[in-house]
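#lab-general

N.A. 3:47 PM
ok so I finally got the sequence cleaned up, no stray characters, all 373 residues accounted for. can someone with queue access submit it? mine expired

B.Y. 3:52 PM
send it over

N.A. 3:53 PM
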Amino acid sequence: MSVADRIVVMSAGRVEQVGTPREIYQRPATRFVAEFIGLTNLFPGGLDGPDAGARGRRRAAGLPAWSACGGTPAAGRSGAGLFLDRAAAAPRTFSIAVRRNPACADGEEAGFLSHRIQELEAGDTLLLEPPAGVFTPPVDGTRPLLLIANGIGITPFVSYLEALAAQQAARAGEVLLLHGCRGRADHPLADRLEVLAPRIPGLRRITAYSRPDGEDRAAGRFEVHGRLDIDALRTAGALPDAPDDRPLAYICGSPAFIADMREGLVRWGMPRFDIFTEAFYVPAEVPPELEPRRITVAGSGQSFTWTPGGGSILDAALAAGIALRSGCRVGQCESCAVAVVEGRFAHLVPVEGEPGTCLACQAVPLIDLTIAP
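B.Y. 4:20 PM
back already:
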């Protein structure tokens, strides 16, 4: 998936889909392809209309009517190419986890998002966007899942475990949660995990404390003394000699932690395309020798000036009051991808994207730019 320009997915001697890695991953043509690449949240459904190729009304089993937003079902393959454009039962409340920055309590770093969130009061209005990205473990299916985190990297997994605990039917595949921390004092959301764990059949937890204190030892709060290590877990029998039933792995943490865990899983026998990662955000430095540039949004009559001190293209646009699409703002979800109509740019971090497309949150202009709206 990471080195090919074009991929052919076959099953039982039959070609299921041909396309670029991005096409295969984001728009699987059949159920087999969707399950083969690993990211599998499937909705049973059918077509309410005589034309199987029309963009008409679709129905999902047990759900209200909803509208299709792209995709054409392959001939004779019911349910292929259907996408939801709204939640069937939208939640009335949302919860988020934000690490409290100690500097904010002293009035420093007031621009941090964590500081702004801590200042919110009941009745304040926020602009929210739909979730995006590929770091979305499936809530159903039979393939085992490995959720691997260090420190605050546990955050996305807690929301996933909340979803598992809330659903009526237990997930068929086992879920193994590996979490590394210094000790209980630095164990984010530990109390919430203790509440969720008994409500999720098939969940197994292995917690590693690198610096446990006497109380941690007495209370038996961890299974591993030291840092998480895939090879050591295999030696200790916590993992089998080889992966069974094609597990999917999701890793969240620092870049160094992710690299260590990924290589350990590959040595264990997992293919790289079954390993998904999300790294902590480390602000990229903008080269100070770059010159200020003018950036124009095509067809909108809007433009703004970018300067090296203004951060990324996205940062400069927002500072100028121009709303560009964005999501995670760390270059992972690709929500901020924009087509460059004219000009040259550079990314501040390694990016695997389409030619002529920049991630505005990680890009800077080399000359004046014109970008698509």
